[in-house]
Amino acid sequence: KNRGGVTHMAALASIVAALLAGGPKFTNPGLSSPSAADYAESPIEEYQPVVTGDLPSRQSLRITETLQVVSKVLSAVASLAFTLGKSTTSASCAPETVMTSSGPVPDCTEKLLQGTRGLLVDLDGTIYNDHGLLPGAHQFYHWADKSRYPYVLLSNSGAKGAEGTQAKLATAPFDLTSNPSMPPVPLKNILTGAMAAADFLIEKAKPGSRIFILQSLSRYGGIIDCFRRVLERRAPRGWMEKMEIRTYLSTQDAKIWARDAVRGKHMTYVALAGDGDIRDEEDWGYSTWDYDMLQKAVWIISNGGFLVTHARDTHNPKLAREEGFEDVDLMVPGPGTFEALIKSATYPKAIDRTFNTGKGGNLGGKYMMDKAMKMLKGLGLREGKDRVVIIGDTLDTDIQAANDFGIRSVLLRSGVHTEKDLLYYPGIRPTCIADNLSSVVEMIRKGRKLPPPKFGAPIPPPAPAPAPRAKTFEPPKVPKIVGATNKPASGAYDYITEDEEDF
């Protein structure tokens, strides 16, 4: 009958949904994803062969089925309670205010951003998009460079490190300097997902480890960069020689790597390091994603290997400008899409052997956010996290990283997500929303010398978010092949898609 009752019901439904999402091994109710602390004592420290026959007990399955029913009932009751109480519940915010599961999200103001003394700025969708620089990019860089304002360009890109990013930001149409007198973006102000994933491998991989790299290349201004090159630059002398690093595996080699991994002979990693499509012109082992490539990765990971990724981004925005397609959103599948595919194919065997070091990932706090804070300190930041703001365009990476790390965040409407997407990401909440970087820079510039604002308790939500379905995976059922010609029946398919008639 009242908003408080709806809130409690929604909270209970969320807890049950979280238990379902985690399954029998779930140990952190209420968290959307494991934190870095949960992986402090990870299987990497003391490697043990994986027992592939470890399945949940019948009792665990009965509990899961019961929780599914309870979750559906609670969600239905909460929704009904809110519907019946709408007529008696007064509005808590203006009609145009965006609501999330934690309350309203306002447009950015000087007051919300005052006291900011350090910035973490996303690149794709914030500084630039596929067609060039976005409004405010030049203004931000000129101001930050002239005033020596502490900032770090924080990108989830797995195809380039600081050198490759610097080259891109000095190449049209992404040139931030705009005139020859301005220096290129300093390397000390850049941190990427490739650098974070490389640091993870350098820290965790023991001598004799095997690393299978699936990477894409970055080429700007004559500078070619890729994950293997980032790994070489960041690794201590002699580290690379102690590892077996491959960017291509034959089918037989992949089977051998999987066999040796499950028998505990070698710690084995699959490093997914690309910004969507993958290619390796240096090795010529592959030129794009295909079934064979995915199969090799799945073999290794299912048999004791570790999956290391750098970004949760499921897609990259790309708005076509060709005649006749001006309003078509031709999004490009991102690295998160392929991570999800591999995780589904290896579930539940590799449920505790997947590590994402990018913004919003289960180890992003340690390998991205902690390092970014240290970089800000080295650039002159004297205050703590309450004086830092992250600016980005993606809810489940930029904003999720800010929420997990405990800092303020700005969601820009210039990239992947807008306020319309907030309802689909319950629990992820930006401090405020803005149109582009230009307006945010002006607000921060005016209020930088003021103390940061104090935030009270969030306003309860008006309605619960729909509870997610239990995390299950069933392999597809392949229809029988019929007919003397050995062609599939209507609607039938196989795992590998082929068309010898059409090519």
TrEMBL record:
<feature type="signal peptide">
    <location>
        <begin position="1"/>
        <end position="21"/>
    </location>
</feature>
<dbReference type="InterPro" id="IPR036412">
    <property type="entry name" value="HAD-like_sf"/>
</dbReference>
<feature type="compositionally biased region" description="Pro residues">
    <location>
        <begin position="452"/>
        <end position="467"/>
    </location>
</feature>
<dbReference type="Pfam" id="PF13344">
    <property type="entry name" value="Hydrolase_6"/>
</dbReference>
<feature type="region of interest" description="Disordered">
    <location>
        <begin position="452"/>
        <end position="485"/>
    </location>
</feature>
<dbReference type="Pfam" id="PF13242">
    <property type="entry name" value="Hydrolase_like"/>
</dbReference>
<protein>
    <submittedName>
        <fullName>Uncharacterized protein</fullName>
    </submittedName>
</protein>
<dbReference type="InterPro" id="IPR023214">
    <property type="entry name" value="HAD_sf"/>
</dbReference>
<dbReference type="GO" id="GO:0005737">
    <property type="term" value="C:cytoplasm"/>
</dbReference>
<dbReference type="GO" id="GO:0016791">
    <property type="term" value="F:phosphatase activity"/>
</dbReference>
<keyword id="KW-0732">Signal</keyword>
<dbReference type="InterPro" id="IPR006357">
    <property type="entry name" value="HAD-SF_hydro_IIA"/>
</dbReference>
